[in-house]
Design goal:
Number of strands: 0
Number of domains: 1
Number of helices: 7
Largest sheet: none
Helix content: 55-70%
Structural class: mainly alpha
Order of helices and strands: HHHHHHH
Oligomer: single chain
Distance between the termini: 25 Å
Shape: globular
């Protein structure tokens, strides 16, 4: 049914959730360190945080059919299509897919959750894939 591996999709879901969870950096107390701060710096949207670049890289490395599937899955997860309308969702994604697809996905609130919900609607799960190191 999918040409995109569940492993790739799981990676994108994890990175999208990390990206969505990022917050503006806070000024930390003088003398603060990562151990004291419980390493919450990974959630801060700073220039040296690689999360956005990793997500963009994963999306840009998808071939056209895979990107169309990601778009279709997000739309299914959002409720624009049902799981039974998979063919129609993919056709709509093929028509809508352009050079702004990655930017569109990055600007989609809860992108990772929608992608996973789309997979669930198709009866697929990435739970085992997410657990892999």
């Amino acid at each position: 049914m999918l040409t995109t591996s569940l492993g790739k999709l799981a990676y994108i879901v994890v990175k999208a959730r990390e990206f969505d969870a990022q917050v503006a950096p806070e000024d930390l107390e003088e003398g603060s360190n990562a151990a004291d701060d419980l390493s919450v710096g990974i959630l801060e949207d700073t220039p040296d945080n690689p999360t956005q670049g990793e997500l963009i890289g994963a999306l840009e490395n998808l071939h056209e059919d895979e990107m169309n599937e990601v778009l279709a899955l997000v739309w299914i997860g959002r409720g624009d299509f049902t799981g039974q309308e998979w063919s129609q969702a993919r056709a709509a994604a093929r028509q809508a897919h352009d050079e702004r697809a990655v930017s569109y996905l990055l600007q989609t609130p809860n992108f990772g959750d929608l992608l996973e919900q789309g997979l669930t609607e198709l009866g697929l799960s990435i739970t085992d894939e997410e657990a892999r190191p």
